[in-house]
């Protein structure tokens, strides 16, 4: 998908995020990523237009994208765009009836550093992809990827893991095996490739873009004892991560780890952590693989109201 210039790109992105949560999520296109599963059920959602990205987001790049932080509270979905200073602008309602969605992943398939599509899993295990057309007034496209995705307890997309250009999906099954699905520009997915077993030792796996400065997306993972580990991306879908490097202990103070990319617009991807009292903290990325984050900076309290952030 081609990027849109100036304000028209922002309007198209707003329209995409709006349509990504529309009631007519059920599509017709099946791919090799499908698995046997029950018949699809329409998600019960309705939306109002969210905000366009801030002007600061124009400096984003694929290696350190600028995404909004999305947060689910009750039956509402909220959108927070970075304010360019290490925090977020006031929240905007993206949906006031958020039901029937069990996993959501934002992706940047056109590699301009802004989200242009969303993968959604509904309660019946069906995965769908929603994206905007190639012109500001083009209709939003909703494609059914396939069923059977309830075998996974985690779905994420740190970025272009396989080296082909699009934002690939990671999925961990309930036995702890991690899989990678390579994405195509139209949002369809390849057959899955096995990354490895033993990933059920982690309670959180997070990442959005490049953390160590080599231009390849990386991830961090928190184990059950609260130790955070860094996995450097290789760009090879057959072996997408190098051996893990220990970041440090004490991360069990947080019940959510997530990333929306470059929060403070300094060209490096960052990490967000919510502690058990509901305070959200920013860990600025510094490009160092063995110690990838600066000391934490407090964003603010009240984030405990949300059941999910992505």
Automatic annotation (TrEMBL):
Residues 1-35 form the signal peptide. This is VCBS repeat-containing protein. It comes from Streptomyces cinnamoneus (Streptoverticillium cinnamoneum). Keywords: Signal. The keyword Membrane does not apply. The keyword Signal applies. InterPro entries: FG-GAP, Integrin_alpha_N.
